[in-house]
Target: Tetratricopeptide repeat protein
Amino acid sequence: MSEESNPPTELTEAQLSSDIKALWLKAQSAFEQRNFTYAIKLCLVVLKDTPGFLDARRLARNSAAADTAGSKKKKGLFGMGGGGVSSVTLMKIQNQGKKDPMAALGALEEELAKAPFDGGANDLLFDNAMRLNMLDTAAFALETVRSGAPENTKLLHKLAEHYLARDEPDKAADVYNDIVKQDVTDMDAVKGSKDATARASMKKQKWEEAESFRDVMRSGDDAAELESANRAAMTRDQMMEKLARLSEDYAGDNQNLALVKEIADLYEQLEDWPNAYSFFQYAFELSQKDVALQNKAAYMKDKAAEYQITQLREACAADPDNEELRQQYEALVSDRTSEQVSEAQERVDRNPTDPQLRYELGLALYNAGDFSAAIPHLQQATRNPHIRTRVLLLLGRTFKAKNMYDLAIKQLSDALEDLLSMDGTKKEVLYEKGLIHEETGDASAALDSFKQIYEVDYGYRDVAQRVEQSYTG
Model:
C-alpha cells in the first residue's frame, strides 16, 4: 500500500460502526474490571477493523502495561530481558512494513501487547504510521516510550522533531525538557528547548503576520528574554573560563575539528552569534563537508543577522523620530530578506525534490513580496504530509496578497479538511478564512468562521468582539 492511496483516517468513537463500538465498550468494561488480557484481545479486534481509532490503541497499551506490571515482568517493559521484542521479529516487521505498512501495524500491536514500552517496536510503529499519514498515531508511539522508557533519548529527539514538523513547538519544547532531565549534557536538547520555546511564543504572538515597520516594532519586546531561556547547566562565568582554556588549545592546534566544534558550541551557548557562525563555518570546512555542520553554520548566520536587526529595531524604538536609523533598519531587513531567498534557492538547487526546502523557499519569497514566484514552490511543498497544513495556510495568504480571494479560500478549505481537532493551527486557518470572507463582503461566511473559534476559545484574538457585535448590530 503506498502513502498516496487513500491513507486511513484517524477516527473518534462517534465515527465507529455500531458493531465495532459494541466491542469497544466491552473492552473498556474489561479494563475497568482489571481483566487486562481480555481488554487487549478486544482492542486488537477493534484495531484490525479500524486501525485509525487511537483510543483503542491507547487502551491496549495501558492494559498491556498494567498486565505486565502485575505479572512482575518489568524488565520487559523497556525492551530489556525476556519481555522485549526480539531483533529478528522487528526485522521481519520492518521488511513487511516496506511493502504493506497496514499489515505491519497489526503485527506490531501483537508484539506491543507483550512489551508496551519496547523502543524498537514503538519506533517501527511510528515509521509505519507515518507511511499511512496517521500522524497522531505516530506521535502516540513515541509518547509511549517517553512515558515508559524516558531514558531512550534518541527516540525522544525523534518525537520532538515530529512535533516541530507538525508546527507544535510547545509540545516539542516539553519533550526537549524531558531529555535534559535525563541528560543535562545533551546540548542539542538544551538548544532545541530554547529554540522551540521561542518558536512557540512567536507563533502565539503572530510575529510572522507583521505587515509593516510599526507592526514589527511593537512585536519585539520579549525576544531577548526568550533567547536567554533554558541555558545549559554551566554558568556564564564557567563557560567563559572554559572558552579561555579552549582558545589557548586552539592557538596551538587550529586544525583540530573536535576542538573547533566545542568552541563553536560554547559561543552558541553564550549567544555570541557572529563568533558561533565563524567557528561552525570553519568546522564545516575542516570536516569532510559535513552537511549537519553546514546547516548549523547557516543557522548561526541567521541568528547573527537577527541579532543585528533586533539591535537596530530597539534603537529605532528608543528614537522613533530618527529617520536615518529607520532607513538603516529597513535596508538591513530588505537585504536580509533577499539573502534568505538566495540561500533557500541554493538549497533547492542542491536538492530540488525536497518538499521542506521548497516550502522554505516559498516562505522566503513570500516574505520578500514575490508572491507569484512563491506559488509553484509552495504547491510542490504540499506533497509533504507533515507540513501540508502549514503550506496550505501560506498558499492561502499568498493568493490573498494577489487579490485572488477564491483561490485563497480554496487553499484554506483544503487545510481545514485535514484538521480534525480545534487546535491552534485550525483556529489560525479559520481566522484567516474569516478575514478573506470579510474582505469579499461575505459577512455570513466570515461570521461562520469566527463563530467556530468563539465556541471553543472566547479569548482568541478579537473573535469575541466580532461575533458579539453581529448580535447587537
Remarks:
- Residues 1-8, 72-82, 206-232 have pLDDT under 50 and may be disordered.
- The two ends are 54 Å apart (CA to CA).
